Amino acid sequence: MSDLADTEREVEALLFAAAGPLSGADLAKRLPQGADVSAAIASLKARYQGRGVELVAVAERWRFQTAGDLAWLMTDEREEPRRLSRAAQETLAIIAYHQPVTRAEIEAVRGVQASKGTLDVLLELGLVRMRGRRRTPGRPITYGTTDAFLAHYGLASIGDLPGAPEMRAAGLLSLDLPSDFAVPDPNALAADEDPLDEGDAPEFHIDFLGEETT
User: Fold this and answer.
1) Is the peptide bond prior to 21 cis by the omega test (within 30 degrees of 0)?
2) What is the pLDDT of residues 148-194, one digit of tens each?
3) Minimal CA–CA distance to 210: which of 36, 31, 87, 48?
4) Using CA atoms, how far apart are residues 14 and 27, in angstroms rounded to an integer?
5) Nearest alpha carbon to residue 182 among 199, 164, 200
6) pTM of whole model > 0.70?
7) What residue ranges define each of the domains in the chain, with the CATH number in brackets?
8) Distance between terminal CA atoms of the chain?
9) Which residues pair with residue 194 across a beta bridge?
10) 75: buried, middle or exposed (CB in 10 Å: 19+, 13-18, 0-12)?
């Protein structure tokens, strides 16, 4: 068995040098057989707690990042003309809580017709992905969130989203949800969902950002 202190140093080195967050499995592949990755991560997390750099989980993967209370040191204030429209923000929230969800189902929750550009921006930014096809007439495309969505909002997992009552009050969840409603698994196909057909891919509009009203 690898010594815990050595494993901790090895995990620290890997996370420091990695281009992106690493899962426990990613780390284990590079470490000697028998290395206790979980214990090493727990020890590192405790050691870096309260430091300028902390060890955090993002989408069930680990990375070092600047402590939240020091974010002001990294802030570069500038005008940002490109931003998600309100329609895109609402659509993203609906997808996060209802996934897998079709365009028609998004429209039903919002109460307005969704423009193609709204989904285009979410797809291009990598916040949303095409998951599969619903087993209903027309086999409509279903949408779900991505790990980039979790990283963007600083969520360790989809289960860390705000509770259903708050989102229902904001009008972003249907009022007829079942009593056993739970945040969906963005990586698992639903019972009435098929994988995407070969060749399925989003086609983006060029102008998809701005003050969209629907």
Assistant:
1) no
2) 999 888 888 887 777 656 656 655 555 455 555 555 565 666 667 77
3) 87
4) 7
5) 164
6) no
7) 4-72 (1.10.10.10), 86-195 (1.10.10.10)
8) 59
9) 133
10) exposed
100: Cβ contacts below 8 Å, ≥ 6 apart: 131, 132, 134, 142, 143, 144, 184, 189, 190, 193
Tally of CA atoms within 13 A in the half-sphere of 135 that contains its CB: 7
Q: Which residues of 184-193 are buried (b: 16+ CB within 10 A; e: fewer)?
A: bebeeebeeb
Q: What is the pLDDT of residues 5-19, one digit of tens each?
A: 999 999 999 999 998
